[in-house]
Write a structure and sequence with these properties.
alpha/beta, Spore Coat Polysaccharide Biosynthesis Protein SpsA, Chain A, 6-stranded antiparallel beta sheet
Length: about 475
């Protein structure tokens, strides 16, 4: 029986959901609509139905997220499969080809189910039924499959798929791809009935998609193949060769292959889907009340209509009074207030913030690391106070600083602390001082998270004032 290999594309750094989604920690890792992140929901959905031949997921991501991906998958009980690290983003075509070439060496008869990590598909059972229909089309005709979403409105933010006949529940031959339309064109396509939204989710046999790249995008074959063949294993990750990858064209799979291939079919899907591409989409997915008021977190909304109001901190109460057609998203370090009809323009705010040098443009106040995370609580001219969370069994690097000393106070769990030649255990409500220049490390030897408060003092407090001597995560 043919094995389906889920391939999850997880390298995006979306700006349209700022301030919650930022380059340092984009929307696929955020619990946007529930307890799970979008990546976690995607991975659970891509496991397939029970007893079906689905393999562990293959994930393509970048250097910044290489530890976040397996951590989030492990949290929901999914054993991470291969994680391929792209040296730099090159769009979807090279990523899909790299996954295909990688899987071809493992299982030449494999089928790839490719999906972005940041979409919402609420009905997993209906999704599996659509995949099963696609698998039948692959077995019968050897088609390259994509999934088209039945439109429920004249949407101008999506590309469309023009079908060769009125869509049914089975796979239908594709006539052509259609770029994002203006409103008048979108309205006519909705009335026509033979147009579907382009979901960016694909299903095809490994050998068929490799053949398609050879025929329609031959220039990609050599550099991507070299990047895979010369990849280096690193702590369970597979790092694609950077030199070969630098020669790869930045191009989407639609432009590189799909718009040129003549064996494309579309499986219609009408059970709910969103690419969560704007805050207005989040409003729709947050189950607004009869006044179209959608709230999340510590929010009180009074006499409002058609609003989305979110508080992303349990210590931050947001009150909306008499608002109409407004988006308000409050983070500890940034607040977005926007007109609902400007939901697609949030990325302009990010561009403006980057131009003025505001760190909020790309970085969250919580900084995620392979061992856990930290956040800055107070920053002064010559001091900084942080909260540091270390996962069970994790350890920071053995390091020293030129410009600062540190004082650690353990508030949860137990820390194993190294200072020069001395090691000691520091329990809750105990503290330890790290002199300037001392070689030191903190570890969590326990089975529960360890949390400490760090007070830094010195002339320079930047994260680049770190000299690493040893690091279990192979950071330079």
């Amino acid at each position: 029986m043919t094995t389906v290999y889920p391939v999850i594309l997880c390298g995006g750094s979306g700006t349209r959901l700022w301030p919650l989604s930022r380059k340092s920690y984009p929307k696929q890792f955020v619990p946007l609509l529930g307890e799970n992140s979008l990546l976690q929901d995607c991975a659970l959905r891509m496991r397939g139905p029970e007893a079906a031949p689905y393999a562990k997921p293959v994930v393509l991501t970048n250097e910044a997220f290489r530890f976040v991906v397996p951590e989030q998958l492990t949290e929901i009980g999914i054993d991470p499969g291969p994680v391929l690290i792209e040296p730099e983003g090159r769009n979807t075509a090279p990523a899909v080809l790299a996954a295909a070439l990688f899987l071809n060496e493992i299982d030449p008869d494999a089928v790839m189910l490719v999906a972005p990590s940041d979409h919402v598909v609420p009905d997993s059972s209906a999704f599996h039924d659509a995949v099963s229909e696609g698998l039948r089309a692959i077995a019968e005709r050897g088609d390259l499959l994509t999934f088209g979403i039945t439109p429920d409105r004249p949407e101008t933010g999506y590309g469309y798929l023009k079908l060769s006949q009125t869509p049914e529940t089975c796979a239908v031959p594709l006539d052509r791809f259609v770029e994002k339309p203006d409103l008048e064109t979108a309205e006519s396509m909705l009335a026509d009935g033979s147009y579907l939204w382009n979901s960016g989710i694909f299903l095809f046999a490994v050998r068929d998609i490799i053949t398609a790249f050879e025929q329609h995008a031959p220039a990609l074959m050599s550099p991507v193949k070299n990047a895979v063949e010369n990849a280096k294993s690193d702590l369970g990750f597979l790092r694609l060769d950077a030199e070969a990858w630098s020669e790869v064209e930045d191009i989407s799979i639609d432009y590189a292959v799909m718009e040129k291939a003549n064996n494309l079919s579309v499986v219609p899907y009408a059970a709910g889907w969103s690419d969560v591409g704007s805050w207005s989409a989040v409003q729709e997915l947050t189950h607004p009340d009869s006044d179209s008021v959608a709230t999340s977190g510590e929010v009180t909304a009074i006499d409002c209509q058609n609003v989305l109001v979110r508080s992303e901190s349990p210590a931050q109460e947001v009150v909306a009074l008499g608002l109409q057609d407004v988006i308000a998203v409050a983070m500890p370090d940034a607040v977005l207030v926007a007109s609902m009809d400007k939901a697609q323009d949030v990325k302009k705010a990010v561009t403006a913030l980057k131009a003025k040098g505001a760190k909020q443009a790309e970085s969250l106040p919580v900084d995620h690391r392979p061992w856990g995370w930290f956040e800055s609580l107070v920053i002064g001219d010559r001091f900084q106070v942080k909260r540091i969370h270390v996962h069970p069994g994790a350890a920071l690097s053995l390091q020293s600083h030129h410009h600062r000393s540190e004082h650690w106070i353990v508030v949860e769990g137990t820390a194993k602390v190294t200072i020069d030649e001395e090691e000691r255990l520091v329990s809750e409500n105990q503290s330890v001082y790290i002199p300037l220049g001392a070689v030191h490390r903190m570890e969590n030897p326990g089975k529960v998270p360890m949390v400490l408060i760090e007070v830094q003092t010195g002339t320079y407090l930047g994260e680049d004032d770190i000299i690493r001597y040893e690091d279990i995560y192979s950071r330079s």
